[in-house]
Amino acid sequence: MAFNLPAQTSIAKLRPTTTPSAWTRPADWISITDTAGEVQFLVSDVNPVYGIKTTFNKPAGQNLYIDWGDGTTTTVSTNTLVSSSHTYTTGGTPCSRGYNTWKIRIYVDAGAQITGAYFYSTTDPNPGFPCTVLEAYYGDGTINNAYQYFYSSQSLAGELSFGMLEYCKLPATMTGTTQTLYATFYACYQLAKVVMPTSMPNTTTGLYRTFWLCYSLLEVDIPTDATGVTQFAQVFYSCSNLIRIGLPSTWSSCTSMDQAFFGCTSLRTLQVPSTPICTNYNGTFQGCQSLLSLTIPSITTASTINWTSTWSGCTSLQNLNLPTTTGGGLFTISSTWLNCYSLINLTLPSNFNTTSLQSAFSGCYNLCTVTFPTSMPSLTNLASTFQNCYNLQEITLPTTVGATMDLSGTFNGCKTLSSVTIPSSYTVTTFSLTFNGCNSLQTAVLPNNAQNSCTTFSQCFASCYSLVNVTLPTSMTALTTIASMFSGCQSLTSINLSGITFSVLNTITGVATGCNSLRSLTLPSTISTLTSLGGTLVQNNNSLTSLTYPATISSAITSVGALATNLFSVKTITLPTTTTSSLTAQSISIGIAPNLRTINNLNLLGDNNTAGITWTFSNTPLLSGITIWSKIAKLTFAGTATQQWAATSVRIPKMTNATLTGASPQIDVRYQSLEAAALDTLYGDLPVVTSKSIAITGNPGANTSNQSIATGKGWTIVN
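Now predict its structure.
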C-alpha cells in the first residue's frame, strides 16, 4: 500500500542548496533597501477581497507613514499603538516564481523609531494565509521585543503567513529592556538567511525556539556580544539544512541549551564557547547526523549538569573531546551517546560522577574503549550501558561506586568482548541479560557479594557461544530466577551450581537450553520455592550425559513436564529423593526421536507423600535401569504393545493399593540380560493387580525364575 504525501511545491522550489552562500535574492523581485529607521516588507498574493491590516507602535507626537507599494500612502498622526488596513486594487508585480508582489514601507519622521509590525487579515472569517512575506528588513532601533514576530503557525488565526519568508535582516541594535527573540522565526520553513543583531547585551533574555523548524536555514551568526542571552533551548530545533553556526567565543550567562541543535542533520562542526556555565544539555546535539568532531570546554560549576541524550544519534561523530576535569558537579546521564556509530574511543573526565549510565553508549557499534575514572561514588545503574557495542573489546569499570548496582543488559550484544571482570566492590541487584549475545566472551568473573540483593540471573549469559569459564557468587539468598541463564552457551562443558546457596529460587526454566557441549549439569543444592522440575531446562543438547537434581527439595513441586526433551546422549537422570510435592498426573519426556537409546538409568526414587500420582513415560528410549518412587499410586508406560524397556534391572517398589495401566504388555523386558535373581527381585517389588502382564521372553533367567511370586499378585507371565 502506498502513501502519497501532499506536494510541497513551494518548499521544494525554494529549498536552498547545501552551500551557505548559495542563496541569492531573485533578480526580478521588487527592490528592497536597508534603510535606517524603516521597516520594509516584500509581500505576495494579498487577498484582494479582505485586504491586509498591520499593527505597530510609534513614538508619541510623531507621524508614521505606510507606503503600501501601489502608490497609496497612509499617514498616522495620533496614538502610539496603530492599526491600519489596506485593500489592493491592482494585481501587484509578478515575478519568475509565480508570485504577485508588493513592497510595503513603514517609517516615521526623522529621528523617531518604530517598535513593532504585525500583519493580519482585515475581515476574513477563515483567514488561512491571506498573503505571505518573502523578505523583511528592519532598520536600526526598530525592534524592541521580537516575540513570535514571524511565527507562521496556522493556529494563530488571521496572522500573516511567514512560512515563505526567505530572508530577514534584523536591526544591528535592538532597543528596550526585553529584547527577546523567543520563537521569532518559528516554523518559517523557507527561511534561508538571517542577519542577526551585532549586539544582544545584558538585558536580552533569550533565543528560545528562535529558528524552530526552519528547515531551509543554511547559516547564521549569533552576536559576538551575547552576554545577556540566558536561554538557548531549541533555538535551531530541526534546522536540517543548517551547515554553519557562529557562536560567541565566550558566553557566561547561558543556562540552558536544551535541544538547541536537535535534528540539525547537516551540521558538521561547531565551536562551543570557551566559558559556558550552562547546566542543561538535554538533547543539545541529538540527531546531528553529520557532526564530525566537537570539543567541550572546561566545566567549572559544581551544579548538576544534564547530559541526557546530548549526543544521541550523532552517527558521524568521531572525535569528542570532553574536559579532563569537571567542577565536581553530578552529571545526569541517559542515552547520552546512544547510536553514535562512528565513535571509537572516549575518555570521561577524571572526576566525572553520575548516578546512572543507563543506555549511555547503547548502539555505539564501533566503540572500542571507554576510559572511566577509578572512582564514581554515586554510580548505581549500568543498565544497557554498552548494549550492542559490537566492537567493544575490553572494559575496565570504576572500582568505587554506589551502594548497589543494576547490571541488567549492560553488555547485551557486545559481540567482540572476550573477558569481563565485575569489580568485587559491586553489590549487584540484577544480572538479567547482562552478557546476552556476547559471542566472543570466554571468561566472566562476577563479584561474590550478591547474597542480599541480586534477584535474577535471567538470560545473563544467553548466547555466549564462546564462554568456557564463569565465576559466580557463592551465595545468592535473594535470587528468584535463573531462567535461560546459560541458554545457547555452546562451549560450556559443565555447569555446577551445587555449591551456591539459593534461598528463594523458584524458576530454572531453560537454564542450559541449547548448550550443545554441556556434559553435566548439577543444579543448586538448596532450592526452597521451586515448583517445576521440567520445562525446557536442558532441551536440544547433544552432549549432556548426566542431569542431577538436588537430593532434597523442600518446595511444592507441582509439575515435571518435558524433563529432558531432545537429549541425545543422556545416560543418567537423578531426581530429588525427598520433596514435599503436590504432584498429580505428570508426564516425563526424555527425547522425541525413536533412535534415542542411550539412557541407562532413570532414578525416580523418592519419598513422595502424596497418593494418586500418575507418571506417564513417553517417547522414552530403552533403559538399562529404572528405579521408581516408592509411593506412586499409578504408573503408566505409554507407547505401543511392542515397546521394549531394555532394562538389566528394574526396581518397582511395593505400592500398596496401586494400579498399573498401559498398553499390553504392561511391563516388557523381553530379550534383555536379566538373570533369575534379577527377575525375582522385580517380581517382589510388584504391587497386587488384576489381569496385568509382564513379558520376560528371551531373558537368561526366564525359565528358572520364581514366577509364582508375580502370579500370586495377579500378574500373568508372558514367556
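The CA atoms of residues 192 and 217 lie 4 Å apart.
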